[in-house]
């Protein structure tokens, strides 16, 4: 979930807006989107009050020493731990876990990273437009669920619900999957008028009504969400899930990478002595026998998520949109890293004080579900939003700005979203649909935002 600090040196709009007028971006696909949603693009201005950067933070307390002692004792008692176990401890442990203890303080310019919804309202608005547009193209007109995993501050869902309200959508309920209590409170605070109470003996842990009238529920896991027609969205969620790392030696044998203690009692990486059952079970055959691959990362949690989503939309109807940074399977080295104050730091230093992340392997995820779903993408984030009409939306917001500073902030945020130096090419977008929609999608030449995208 991580991006470096926003650049403030000004904007180079011609670099990422095609060198012409802003509303020329996106070509023919954009035109159909604009025609369909003309009321939205032209009627709304700065409805959310989030032009430019949206960030609220306080300083993060130092829980690191207590968590470090716990990890060291665990290793001394039970032996080396996997990177996945280390990531789970540093992110979710009640003893100084990054997300469980620091909560919303990690987001924004004064936190450790900025996510796209905090960057600009246009991100969430266009995701909302995409969800509603695709829903209407399925022909489905009954009650449906909008499901978000890893909702962060709640800003993305806030911007999406504003779009749904604009289109008078009344048949949707909101379902958020969140494991951090502090983040859950932050989400409810931004989405609802009042905070609710935790609920026991129900699949959901909280329920409420948003400020714009939508029923909303919070869950601890995706498996607890009702089995109904659902639209699944996730932004910078999969990259934060625990991973296992494997490395091939010169003899062609695979070893798992563990976290251990060195002679100075400091955390260090080490290789398992030999192949083990986990190595054999998690490494795909094509990876094991590809001599060009010597390093491999895999997230069991991400695999589980994509399978659950595929099963849900296949059995009960719906579709999914996944936005994250990653690759199509072409990366052949380790990507594990950590972010603190918008800078890359070593993941074993000061556990619980930084955000640990790894690139999403979209190619691997596609292989897991391509037999039972239609998959579009991944495409670059800037291509997706260009086709969704971000140029037209930017022009409308620019016209609503009252000062030069507001306009510059808006351009800066859009540049971060679309440029090569920001999120534009590094972040990817992928969508999943049930195969029952194959004929409709072929007739439409694919879903919005995925023109010329590879299809599986």
UniProtKB/TrEMBL annotation:
Q: Which domain of life is it from?
A: Eukaryota
Q: Which GO terms describe its cellular component?
A: mitochondrion
Q: Which InterPro entries match?
A: NDUFAF7, NDUFAF7_sf, SAM-dependent_MTases_sf
| EC number of this enzyme | 2.1.1.320
The family database entries (Gene3D superfamilies) matched by this protein are listed as: 3.40.50.12710
Instruction: For this entry, list what GO says about its biological process.
Output: methylation; mitochondrial respiratory chain complex I assembly
Record's Pfam families? Methyltransf_28
Q: Where in the cell is it found?
A: Mitochondrion
Per its record, the protein catalyses:
L-arginyl-[protein] + 2 S-adenosyl-L-methionine = N(omega),N(omega)'-dimethyl-L-arginyl-[protein] + 2 S-adenosyl-L-homocysteine + 2 H(+)
User: Which UniProt keywords are given for this protein, alphabetically ordered?
Assistant: Methyltransferase, Mitochondrion, Transferase
Q: Which EC class is this protein assigned?
A: transferase
What Gene Ontology molecular function terms does this protein carry? protein-arginine omega-N symmetric methyltransferase activity
Q: Transferase among the record's keywords?
A: yes
* Free-text function comment from the UniProt entry: Arginine methyltransferase involved in the assembly or stability of mitochondrial NADH:ubiquinone oxidoreductase complex (complex I).
Q: Which PANTHER family match?
A: PROTEIN ARGININE METHYLTRANSFERASE NDUFAF7, MITOCHONDRIAL
Family per similarity comment: Belongs to the NDUFAF7 family.
What is this protein's record name? Protein arginine methyltransferase NDUFAF7
Organism listed in the record: Thelazia callipaeda (Oriental eyeworm)
């Amino acid at each position: 979930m991580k991006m470096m600090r926003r650049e403030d040196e000004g904007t180079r709009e011609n670099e990422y807006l095609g060198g012409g007028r802003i509303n020329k971006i996106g070509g023919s696909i954009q035109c159909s989107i604009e025609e369909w949603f003309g009321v939205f693009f032209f009627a709304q201005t700065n409805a959310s009050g989030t032009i430019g950067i949206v960030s609220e933070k306080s300083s993060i307390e130092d829980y690191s020493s207590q968590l470090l002692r716990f990890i060291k004792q665990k290793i001394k008692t039970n032996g080396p731990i996997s990177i996945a176990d280390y990531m789970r401890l540093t992110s979710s442990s009640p003893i100084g876990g990054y997300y469980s203890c620091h909560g919303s303080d990690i987001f924004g310019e004064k936190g450790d990273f900025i996510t796209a919804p905090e960057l600009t309202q246009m991100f969430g608005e266009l995701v909302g437009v995409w969800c509603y547009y695709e829903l209407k193209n399925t022909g489905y007109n009954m009650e449906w669920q909008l499901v978000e995993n890893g909702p962060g501050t709640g800003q993305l869902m806030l911007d999406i619900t504003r779009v749904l309200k604009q289109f008078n959508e009344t048949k949707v309920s909101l379902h958020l999957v969140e494991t951090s209590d502090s983040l859950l409170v932050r989400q409810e605070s931004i989405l609802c008028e009042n905070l609710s109470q935790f609920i026991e003996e129900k699949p959901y842990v909280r329920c409420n009504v948003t400020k714009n009238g939508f029923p909303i529920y919070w869950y601890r896991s995706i498996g607890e969400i009702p089995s109904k027609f659902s639209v699944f969205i996730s932004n910078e969620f999969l990259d934060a899930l625990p991973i296992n790392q494997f490395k091939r030696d010169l003899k062609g044998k695979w070893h798992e990478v563990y976290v251990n203690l060195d002679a100075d009692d400091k955390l260090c990486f080490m290789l398992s002595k030999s192949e083990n059952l986990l190595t054999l079970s998690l490494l795909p055959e094509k990876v094991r026998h590809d001599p060009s691959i010597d390093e491999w990362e895999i997230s069991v949690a991400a695999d589980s998520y994509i399978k659950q989503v595929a099963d849900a939309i296949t059995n009960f109807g719906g579709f999914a949109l996944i936005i994250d940074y990653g690759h199509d399977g072409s990366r052949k080295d380790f990507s594990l890293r950590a972010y603190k104050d918008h800078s890359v730091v070593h993941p074993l230093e000061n556990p619980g004080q930084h955000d640990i992340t790894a690139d999403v392997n979209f190619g691997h995820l596609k292989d897991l579900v391509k037999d039972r779903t239609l998959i579009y993408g991944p495409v670059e984030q800037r291509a997706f939003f260009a086709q969704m009409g971000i140029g037209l939306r930017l022009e409308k917001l620019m016209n609503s700005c009252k000062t030069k500073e507001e306009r510059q902030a808006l351009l800066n945020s859009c540049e971060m979203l679309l440029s090569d130096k920001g999120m534009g090419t590094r972040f990817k977008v992928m969508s999943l649909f049930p195969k029952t929609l194959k004929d409709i999608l072929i007739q439409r030449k694919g879903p919005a935002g995925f023109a010329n995208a590879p299809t599986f």
